[in-house]
Amino acid sequence: MQPSGVKRKVCLCGVRLDALSMSDVLTVVEQAIERRERLTIAMVNVAKLVNMQDDQSLRESVESSDLVLADGMPLVWLSRLKRDPLPERVAGIDLMYEFFKLADKEAFRVYLLGATRETLERVAEIARRDYPRMIVAGHRHGYFTQQEEEEVSREIRDARPHILLVAMSSPQKELFMKRWAAFFRVPVCHGVGGSFDVMAGVTHRAPRWMQRCGLEWFFRVLQEPRRMWKRYLVTNTIFIALAVRDLFDRRSAGKNCG
Question: Cα(109)–Cα(68) distance, rounded to whole angstroms?
Fold first, then answer.
């Protein structure tokens, strides 16, 4: 179902993204909660866009989401080069904090799912301290098996949250939400990736100037060079090739976007 307020989509490298600003997204979210409609949100950055080219299950899970948002300045720049601009980058972690503010204002119930047990406890503690009117309806760490998914989903459903935040890596979070969103019937489900780690102080976010310059990936490499350098070297190189093809071969660029 197309959420009300979603007016335009932008096709980048065969992936359709909703052309929404942060304020647009929050309007759609508030409407979904008010009407008790289901709204799943997927975030796409350079790495995920690249992985979607060959990972069909990831592609299907992302495309089954009600909102697909650009979480990466390179995607915004590419849309401008194609003269079909996205209004802005909507970062998953920024959206998470906006949800906390909204939940604090309206006394919404929020369920926190993902990260390690220690990190999750710290996130719940910070959330209760900084957003006192927000109700932490429940929380559970992200290290569970596929056989335990029904139990986890039942706990979420029984907690009756307005918003579910899923802090798991891709494609696990997208697949989990696709399989179980209809079962636990939460109005708004948002995959936040590693945002709980940042909130808990386990990892650090890049400075604002690096975010604006699209260099958050480089900041992550600086923090974890042995683990991250090869991943970003490969995905960034592939993205550049995909972007060039998207710009100069319009038939190829649009063939998977419908």
Answer: 23
Model pLDDT for residues 47-85, shown as the tens digit of each residue: 999 999 999 999 999 999 999 999 999 999 999 999 999
Phi, psi at 179, each rounded to 5°? -70, -35
Domains of the chain: 13-199 (3.40.50)
CB atoms within 10 A of CB 251: 6
Taking the C-alpha atoms of residue 91 and residue 85, their distance in angstroms, rounded to an integer, is 16
State the DSSP string of 75-131. Answer: HHHHHHHTT---S----HHHHHHHHHHHHHHHT-EEEEEES-HHHHHHHHHHHHHH-
150 alpha-carbon distance from chain centroid = 22
**Residue 55: what pLDDT?**
94
Q: In the structure encoding, which two tokens stand for residue 95, read together? A: 């959206």
Cβ neighbours, 10 Å, residue 55: 16
For residue 182, give both structure tokens: 């209809």
